[in-house]
Amino acid sequence: MSLGPLMIDVAGLSLTAEEKEVLRHPLVGGLILFSRNFASPEQVTALIQEIHALREPRLLVAVDQEGGRVQRFREGFTALPPMRRFGEIYDKDPKKARHLCYTCGWLMASEMRAIGVDISFAPVLDRDVGVSAVIGNRAFHGKPHIIADLAHEFMRGMNEAGMAATGKHFPGHGHVAADSHVAIPVDERRYEDIAEDDILPFERMIHYGLAAIMPAHVIYPKVDNRPAGFSPIWVTEVLRHRLGFQGVVFSDDLSMEGATVGGTYVDRARTALAAGCDMVLICNNPEGARQVIAGLGEYHDPAAQIRLIRLHGKGSHSRAELLSSPRWRQAARELDTLNEHASLDLDL
């Protein structure tokens, strides 16, 4: 069985019989975990093992473990700082910021790989220009070349730990105040301005070997009247052809308000896949996921299959081995000095 183009979620701390049946469906290729799926490192490890045992090749297991206010697994894991902290340090000491960013990427990915997670959807490559509250301190910086520099180090750390990186939210979410989780953001800038300011971090990260990208649920009407993740112009023409990106394209969550312009759940999935996405996310809406499974029909994309298989996590080490290693202890100490009081997980 191949990996299907849908990434879905489950309700609780273990799988129900119905969820197992759905996860074995040929259209499903991945599962994303949220805070509700986590009670302890031991429990979530058992859950991921249960998921991976369902089929071969095993389903991709993903999570949003960015740091700061977007960190799904907290108790028993290192509290990761928001990426803004690295940008603040960079302004004073770029060498130190690069080192800490590499350390953070390695530590985050190592902790996730030790429990079986394949990919964390990170890093954020959006610019923080003081407009978007939903991006805010999730962004490294406001200057594109600094974002690219720090994100490269974060990705290098992730890669060393055996995890591929996912840059988001292409071509840039930082210039709109509206939150695409609850609204339909519109960015009125010209393509030339977006390319000069926001696309540069994505372009450089592609050059550095970025494995996956997630487009924004933002409409850029001077380029296309469809959100970027539904747009062949953005995904195929700009991302694939102009920028030469050969990795995986994930849609952002099709349950978000910014995706509702795409019509029914089946229509949204079809439109995103037709635009050039390899895998579409349907989160926090089991009925929407069932509708897509029932209505999408047969789907085969050999090129997407190859790209998706490459995202499986590499290497294997136990959580006990990791936590007893001098390198993990040193990395955890370094990052602990950066943390302010942790914000609540907003389930963004």
Would you summarize the structure shown here?
It contains 13 helices and twelve strands.
Order of helices and strands: EHEHEEEHHEHEHHEEEHEHEHHHH
Question: For the report, how would you describe the main beta sheet?
Answer: 8 strands, parallel
End-to-end C-alpha gap: 32 Å
For the residues shown, what is the average pLDDT? 94
The CATH H-level homologous superfamily: Glycoside hydrolase, family 3, N-terminal domain
Beta-strand percent range:
5-15%
Total domain count: 1
Strand order of the largest sheet: 6-3-2-1-12-11-8-7
Poorly predicted regions are 341-348
Strand segment tally: 12
Q: Architecture, according to CATH?
A: Alpha-Beta Barrel
Shape: globular
List keywords for this structure.
disordered C terminus; alpha/beta; TIM Barrel; two-stranded antiparallel sheet; 348 residues; single chain; eight-stranded parallel sheet
Please, could you describe this protein's structure?
There is one protein chain. The protein has a single domain, classed as Alpha-Beta Barrel (TIM Barrel). Strand 4 (65-67) and strand 5 form a beta hairpin. Helix 4 crosses helix 13 (326-336), helix 5 packs parallel to helix 7 and helix 9 packs across helix 10 (286-295). By secondary structure, the protein is of the alpha/beta class. The protein contains 13 helices and twelve strands. The strands form three sheets. Strands 6-3-2-1-12-11-8-7 form an eight-stranded parallel beta sheet. A two-stranded antiparallel ribbon has the order 4-5.
